[in-house]
């Protein structure tokens, strides 16, 4: 079901096209389209070039490297489109069983915590400019405009409002030129929505007359078209809001009146209820308002928060009644059902005192969710006393719920809403009251974000007797946090409190901490202090008597050196880790032996995406131990960082020392990685080997057989795919027969795809002809 929902969501991004010569090809395209879209979705073509460990180990550097590759691509194919979609759009509207996925760019910018004029900002703007050029080359108009809208959002987030304006302007101009009016108008609605979100409506005002002409051409009596409401109501009302924002009420009212003809008053329509009131047409707004008051108000829809705020701002006599009705909906105990009603309502200019009053009689869970937002809004309106009161009420509500939550989620939300002063005061109050729980995932993050490291330290120190392992973990994070503030003395003081060895026989927490502190300082430009801390870590490691802990300690130092780009020092530390691992005398009581520790050190490198070091260390394991060694993790990490040569070599160890099943299960993944990067020769060679091994088994894996058939077809080896398909079991069972039919259709689709290739074209086509939009398109 998940695969079907993925395909359905991707199909929404693509337009069924009309091929101009052979109508039968269009029918064939429609039957094969889901297969190709799913294959495109599974592709992970980036990074193309292997990432060095010092790049791969840094999340931001790794993502910037991938973005640079996408921006530098010489061809615009479906894999590039899908990559851009994941970066700039995501899947925010996904519903169960899938979860909404934000644009990957949003996550990157959150990780960077970018500030205007920072080095990362300049680098990203350069990448964005190249991405803009890539998007301009796209054929599919809906994909193109969707990506341009997403790019405009991130331009503005980076502080480049002018570039955002330029991108929106070009998207509008492109949409106005569309031969198919429905595609053009649909795209215009998307761009107008983005312009309103970015407060860019005045900047696109010179184009609005042309936009209105295009939109009006599709406002017609409802027919069989299922998108009639979109063209007759939704998009015209979006343009009407733009006219309101640009001080053109007459034009706005004309559009609202025309849209109202297709939206009966007995239907809930918050846009009509709001726009009519904004345009001083209270009588026309009344029936729409009454319909809303009679029904349930879905406050998770942001339009209703804006509606309620508008009626408050314009002092409508029914504003209190409307607010009360919305507030009852907002009391829904499921947070995702009430959405961000309060923040959206206040952002739209709602009555802050009304919210504060309503919260006083609301359940404590609701007060915890919203009071910091109220406090931040009061501060922004220069009402410090009310802000302080709201924070105190928040603390009291958290105390009421102390057995269920500690306020961390609400504080995190306040930080994300830029209410940092309120989040800081609340965090510090709760820390002093010992309410904030010691959590290995959020405590130090919140302390850093609220500038409250000193406030949380007593909470951590109190764990010395009750939860020593958790105390050690949090002290490590706290020391690193102080290093990030370049407070070397405090970081070293905390590191000294961390045990050199603890209950975990596979690590030295103190050495790990010193190494990470050194890396943080080095990356911040504090080279001399960093080298001093590195020396301290090495000196402390030399004092560890247990060889297995000494080995993992040197592994931690090696990882930190790699992060700082000090390759020679990293290799020296790694070799020391191997040396001390090999000095271990096997202990049957603990199970700690040389091969176990070497495998552990290798995995610890992988945990930090340091594939080269992991591979070198794995090769130090004795050959007789490879049978029980987990090599798959290395192969997966190598593929994710573009190190296909290492993945291939590691698979040879599996072929030589592990079961045939282990090899034929991992080989298709490597072959797919080769195909994803348009390297069919290596892929086919690996598929041939995997097929030979699979066919030699008495009992074959049906799942692996099916995957090999698909990959042969993708690689253009239709003959090999058909030969394997002929051996697929025919059990007579409905499920087996259906799967065989699906595989036959899959192979047939790729066979037809190969027949459409030009002579000499690569066997692996990243985008079938029917996914490339021709000049004539239909919805």
Explain this structure.
It is a single chain. This protein has 779 residues and is mainly alpha-helical. Helices cover 68% and strands 0% of the residues. The longest helix is centred in the C-terminal third of the chain and has 22 residues, at 734-755.
Salient structural properties:
mainly alpha, disordered N terminus, 779 residues, globular, single chain
Brief synopsis:
This protein is mainly α and 779 residues long.
Global outline: globular
Percent of residues in beta strands? under 5%
Instruction: Give the proportion of residues in helices.
Output: 55-70%
Q: What is the structural class?
A: mainly alpha
Main beta sheet: none
Low-confidence stretches: 1-28, 222-226, 765-779
- How confident overall, as mean pLDDT? 86
Rg computed from alpha carbons, rounded to a whole number of angstroms: 30 Å
Task: Report how far the terminal alpha carbons are from each other.
Answer: 26 Å
* Count of alpha and pi helical runs: 42
- The count of strands amounts to 0
């Amino acid at each position: 079901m998940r695969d079907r929902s993925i395909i359905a969501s991707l199909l929404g991004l693509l337009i069924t096209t009309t091929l101009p010569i052979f109508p039968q090809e269009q029918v064939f395209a429609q039957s094969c389209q889901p297969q190709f879209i799913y294959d495109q979705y599974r592709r992970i073509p980036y990074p193309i070039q292997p990432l060095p460990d010092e790049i791969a180990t840094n999340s931001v550097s790794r993502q910037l490297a991938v973005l640079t590759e996408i921006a530098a691509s010489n061809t615009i194919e479906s894999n590039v489109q899908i990559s851009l979609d994941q970066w700039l759009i995501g899947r925010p509207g996904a519903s169960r069983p899938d979860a909404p996925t934000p644009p990957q760019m949003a996550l990157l910018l959150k990780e960077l915590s970018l500030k205007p004029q920072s080095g990362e900002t300049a680098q990203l703007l350069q990448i964005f400019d190249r991405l803009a050029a890539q998007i301009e080359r796209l054929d599919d108009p809906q994909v193109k405009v969707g990506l341009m809208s997403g790019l405009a959002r991130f331009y503005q987030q980076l502080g480049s409002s002018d570039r955002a304006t330029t991108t929106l302007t070009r998207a509008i101009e492109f949409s106005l030129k569309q031969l198919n009016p429905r595609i053009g108008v649909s795209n215009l609605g998307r761009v107008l929505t983005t312009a309103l979100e970015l407060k860019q409506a005045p900047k696109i005002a010179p184009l609005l007359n042309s936009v209105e002409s295009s939109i009006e051409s599709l406002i017609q009596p409802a027919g069989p078209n299922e998108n009639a409401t979109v063209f007759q109501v939704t998009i015209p009302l979006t343009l009407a809001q733009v006219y309101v924002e640009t001080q053109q009420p007459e034009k706005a009212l004309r559009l609202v009146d025309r849209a109202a003809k297709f939206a009966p008053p007995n239907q809930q329509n918050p846009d009509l209820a709001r726009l009519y009131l904004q345009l001083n047409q209270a009588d026309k707004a009344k029936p729409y308002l009454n319909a809303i008051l009679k029904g349930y108000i879905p406050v998770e829809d942001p339009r209703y928060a804006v509606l309620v705020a508008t009626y408050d701002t314009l002092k409508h006599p029914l504003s209190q009644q409307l607010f009360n009705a919305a507030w009852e909906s907002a009391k829904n105990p499921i947070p995702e059902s009430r959405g961000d009603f309060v923040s959206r309502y206040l952002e739209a200019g709602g009555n802050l005192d009304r919210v504060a009053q309503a919260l006083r009689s609301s359940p404590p869970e609701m007060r915890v969710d919203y009071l910091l937002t109220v406090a931040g809004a009061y501060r922004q309106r220069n009402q410090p006393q009310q802000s302080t009161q709201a924070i105190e009420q928040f603390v009291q509500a958290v105390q009421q719920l102390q057995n269920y939550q500690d306020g961390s989620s609400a504080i995190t939300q306040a930080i994300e809403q830029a209410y940092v002063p309120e989040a800081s005061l609340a965090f510090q109050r709760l820390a002093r009251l010992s309410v904030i729980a010691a959590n290995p995932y959020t405590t130090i993050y919140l302390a850093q974000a609220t500038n409250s490291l000193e406030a949380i330290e007593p909470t951590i120190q109190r764990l010395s007797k009750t939860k020593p392992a958790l105390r050690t973990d949090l002290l490590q994070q706290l020391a690193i946090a102080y290093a990030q503030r370049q407070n070397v003395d405090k970081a070293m003081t905390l590191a000294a409190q961390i045990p050199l060895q603890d209950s975990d026989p596979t690590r030295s927490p103190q050495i790990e901490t010193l190494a990470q502190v050194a890396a943080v300082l080095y990356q911040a430009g504090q080279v001399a202090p960093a080298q001093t801390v590195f020396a301290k870590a090495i000196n402390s490691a030399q004092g560890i008597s247990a060889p297995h802990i000494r080995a993992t300690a040197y592994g931690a130092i090696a990882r930190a050196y790699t992060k700082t780009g000090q390759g020679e020092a990293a290799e020296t530390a790694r070799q020391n880790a191997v040396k001390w691992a090999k000095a271990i005398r096997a202990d049957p009581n603990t199970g700690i032996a040389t091969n176990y520790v070497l495998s552990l050190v290798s995995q610890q490198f992988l945990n930090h995406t340091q594939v080269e070091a992991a591979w070198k260390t794995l090769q130090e394991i004795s050959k007789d131990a490879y049978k029980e060694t987990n090599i798959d993790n290395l192969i997966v990490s190598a593929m994710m960082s573009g190190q296909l040569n290492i993945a291939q070599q590691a698979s040879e160890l599996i072929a030589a020392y592990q079961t045939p099943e282990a090899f034929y299960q991992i080989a298709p993944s490597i072959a797919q990685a080769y195909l994803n990067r348009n390297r069919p020769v290596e892929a086919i060679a690996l598929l041939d080997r995997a097929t030979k091994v699979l066919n030699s088994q008495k009992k074959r894996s049906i799942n692996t057989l099916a995957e090999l058939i698909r990959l042969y077809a993708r690689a253009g080896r239709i003959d090999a795919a058909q030969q394997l398909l002929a051996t697929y079991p025919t059990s007579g069972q409905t499920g087996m027969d259906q799967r065989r039919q699906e595989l036959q259709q899959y192979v047939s689709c790729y066979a037809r795809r190969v027949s459409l290739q030009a002579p000499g074209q690569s066997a692996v086509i990243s985008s079938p002809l029917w996914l490339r939009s021709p000049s004539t398109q239909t919805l």
